[in-house]
Design brief:
CATH architecture of the domain at 6-184 and 223-250 and 288-304: 3-Layer(aba) Sandwich
Radius of gyration: 19 Å
Structural class: alpha/beta
Helix content: 40-55%
Order of helices and strands: EHEHEHEHHEHEEHEEEHEEHEHH
Distance between the termini: 33 Å
CATH class of the domain at 6-184 and 223-250 and 288-304: Alpha Beta
CATH superfamily of the domain at 6-184 and 223-250 and 288-304: NAD(P)-binding Rossmann-like Domain
Strand content: 15-25%
Oligomer: single chain
CATH topology of the domain at 6-184 and 223-250 and 288-304: Rossmann fold
Amino acid sequence: MTRIKKALICGVSGQDGAYLAKLLIGKGYEVWGTSRDAEISGFKNLARLGIKENVHCMSMALNDFRSVLQVVNKIEPDELYNLAGQSSVGLSFEQPVETLESITGGTLNLLEVMRFLGEPIRFYNAGSGECFGDLNSVAADENTPFRPRSPYAVAKAAAFWEVANYREAYGLYACSGILFNHDSPLRPSRFVTRKIVAAACRIAEGSQEKLYLGNIDVARDWGWAPEYVDAMWRMLQLDHPEDIVIATGETNCLSDFVKEAFSCLGLNWQEHVKTNSELLRPSEIMVGRANPSKARQKLNWQAEFKMKDVVQKMIDAEKRNDKFVTTRTD
């Protein structure tokens, strides 16, 4: 009989963690997930995807080496996905210490536990395209230097090099997916994409509110989160660990995202959107651009859904007001 694979997802309650759990359950994995306090965590995203009862949840404090050691040693996972830590670029300016500690310290503890236990665990680390900084006309690939412009990006860059160091120094199967922006209805409302979609839907229903945004001239590569977790899984199926950029390869301005959201609802965005200088960040990436050719070559992965598709899917889910989106891509 074939042994059932076990996966441990740190950060299972977030957008990516929930979609990844659903994907792995569909592949026959025994899925474990962690939260700082599993007893009081609602795991709402797991419930929205209808898989809460299929995920074994445990408490684990990523900044506590002993806690990490106990959990990993008990579960004995074949694959370990590190999707935990403070995930908001904007919030990182307000909470830089917590951001750095949760991302860099948590990643280091996981790597050190793997080294200490000496088990053949395959480790995926959630990197970020934010690490590249302002790219202008350059499409970043795996050889593009990091120039982070936020505490979040600084922390992700440090975690990336922690993973690379442990891979080279100790021979661990450890890799980082350098993911550019990817969204879904499971995004918290503090993320600008959900903020835009939710406001546009309310206005379409008759709300007289105005949507206030910061710099709408910034440009990003937006993808569909359920597709990106498939790329994460594929990375851990390679014979040898490699760091890979995951993106659509298409860059759009935030104003285009806004225009598309309001157009889907038959509205002129310029009548409902205002800019507010108080929402500007201390430093900003004006253009995020990616070259995901290695993902196509190594993983046989390519994003099917681009920005306009993402907007439409989020609008549809917001209108249904159930936030339930499967990992199917049809």
